[in-house]
Amino acid sequence: MFSPLIYSPQPIYNVSLPSGGDPLKIDVNAQYAGLEWNYIYIVFCGFIVWLIIPGIGLLYSGLARRKSALALLFQSLMIVAVTTFQWMFWGYSLAYARDGGPFFGNLKNFGLKNVMAAPSPGSDVLPEIVFCFYQLLFCACTVMIVVGGAFERGNMLPSLVFSFCWATAVYCPVAYWTWNSNGWLYNLPSLDFAGGGPVHIASGWSALAYALVLGKRKHLDETTHGKPHNTTLVFLGTTLIWFGWFGFNGGSALNASVRAMLAAFNTNTAACMGVLGWVLVDSTKNRGKFSVVGACEGAIAGLVGITPAAGFVSVWLAAVIGFLTSIICAMLQDVNKWLRIDEGMDVFKLHGIGGMAGAFLTGIFASRSIAALDGATEAAGGIDGNGIQVGKQFAEICAISAYSFTVSVCLLVVMKWIPIPCMSLRVHEEAEMIGLDRTQFVDEQIGERAILDDLFASSSPASASVVVNESPGSVVGSKVLKG
């Protein structure tokens, strides 16, 4: 294989200078002379990946009932704050330390010690601080997906504590298995370009665990809810997620190669085919009627499905993966009812099931000629005659599913029995009925609740006034408001 950096000497990691050199004595930038375009590209990808986090917050907020919408917006900012601290504290070291066993990292980079100008463990053309920042955003996005399992009845403070613990006990080990050169899945090898396992399968099963331990919402009228309170927010959140995913998949080549550009093209292709697949199923079920929320779910299903395959398949096969993944997820719309679990954000359906479908299809469609577009990677799937790769993908699916679900349940059960009132995983029944916005934020007279309602209310002045002044049990006409 030829080097992707044929025109420039490739930086080499020096064990004796783990930080990349003393900037008071040498120019630490000199080793990347002529290669700056690689890390500029990855930094840009990181910036747009960040948009996925508020995008998920907007999506969740739109899907929830109005009385808990603000809580989900607030949580998106808190999650990225807590996860950043966790990553700086020990998360990065646990996931990407250069030496360790096949299952877990170590604390040699505790507190980001020596994480600065040396070539990164993921790519020699990236300073380690750039690689660390980019991977931080993957962790934050994943944690934000997970907390969707607690919507409308999860207490805010315990969810943040759980986020810190989950990132430590679940995300970091699974990321280590998958992407660290010492990890057992990396050396199996399983093929996961951008996070089908650590991001989607892990978050889907963990959100299911969260919903299971919390139990179903109380006083939920399924005839009036189960539908988003604000479709515009759902649409806006989806577009931010879609845009951010260009950086998520496009940057996962960890260089500005042709492979990275193809991954971005595949991302858009799979999302578009996901929309078509989901709308096809929806319109068939609903006698030709369409659904904006369904189209948004289809886009996300397509994005999830292509994540592990984006740098391994051609554009047309990316279209097949996006279409098939969305069809599978759309056909399983009642999975929560079958499981008898109240996971109202459909995290398990879209990310868990979609992630498993994408990982499996990657094993079938991965192509040597596509993987080699970065000048270095060797990988092949069933389409190239390497049928055993499908079995390796299945091993990845089973291992990550079992580990993430089991550890998440254990973490949540331990937290559930902590005898501290403010650490109760679930809000009180009265707070759930009133809504998280009114019980966990400043008094509505200060304006946050009223502002939210003004933005989300319909254009009718009458309906807007009803929203602002609603309270559980209030009677409007002959109907009782239920949120």
UniProtKB/TrEMBL annotation:
Keywords: Ammonia transport, Membrane, Transmembrane, Transmembrane helix, Transport. The chain crosses the membrane at residues 39-63, 70-90, 125-147, 159-179, 199-216, 228-248, 260-281, 313-332, 353-373, 393-414. GO terms for molecular function: ammonium channel activity. It is found in: Cell membrane; Membrane. It comes from the Eukaryota. InterPro entries: Ammonium/urea_transptr, Ammonium_transpt, Ammonium_transpt_CS, NH4_transpt_AmtB-like_dom. Residues 41-442 form the Ammonium transporter AmtB-like domain. Its main location: membrane. One of its GO terms (cellular component) is plasma membrane. PROSITE patterns: AMMONIUM_TRANSP (PS01219). Pfam families: Ammonium_transp (PF00909). SUPFAM superfamilies: Ammonium transporter. It is a multi-pass membrane protein. Belongs to the ammonia transporter channel (TC 1.A.11.2) family. This is Ammonium transporter. It comes from Penicillium cosmopolitanum.
